[in-house]
Amino acid sequence: MFDPARYADMPEICRKYGLFPAKEEWRGRILLLESSEEQMAPAKYKKALEYLKDAGVFAAVSGVLVGRPMDGVWQAEYEQLLRQVIDDPALPVVCGLNVGHALPRCIVPLGVPARVDVQAQKIEFFMNCRDGRIGRQFYACSRFGGLKQMEPVDKEGHSIIDFSMYDARRAGFRDLVFIIKREHDALFRERIGNRMERFFNVEYVYQELTDIPAGCEVPEGRIKPWGHGAGHCLLPERAARAVCRDQFR
To answer: Using CA atoms, how far apart are residues 231 and 146, in angstroms rounded to an integer?
Structure first.
């Protein structure tokens, strides 16, 4: 969100529409960090941490949870950089969680009250799962070269999304919202959606480049829909309200 290396207009979008929470909004939160399949070099990882520190995030949060890097690449270096950049012995930092791109993978709900007991190696989430919804963003990754969520990852042909939905079902979720592009609708329903309807109440929200809050503008020349940075904040407001109804906040 801060660096234009991947998308030249990303920092401008984030600043213009205030997508990154202000320091006070981080107050009392537990920050979850995860690295990606990109396996960024330590120098780039350090820069990302410095962005967060300059934004006042580490000074505001109550603790930091850090996902284990994919295949453990750079794990020791990342942990050293976390200590170096945060530089606050009073701030609890827990590393090595199997979330994000690490395997085996567990689900960590966002935006709910939580308590971390480092000594007991236990994280508690206080939520009524059966009244909640889980949203899953489904997108094509240009670096991967296709729709990575549907690619088989084991001998039985299960995909990453199969494991994610299995965990969601066990966690008590019953309502499922898929966020997809319209052009992927038929293929996604055939391979994933129709099967999931046996276990969830399934609904769909479509990524639309122009489906943004009132007063916002699409940057000139942008052709891709909103991704991880801006997508979770902007996409797709009107469709999401229609699906979530009175549960949408």
So the answer is: 19
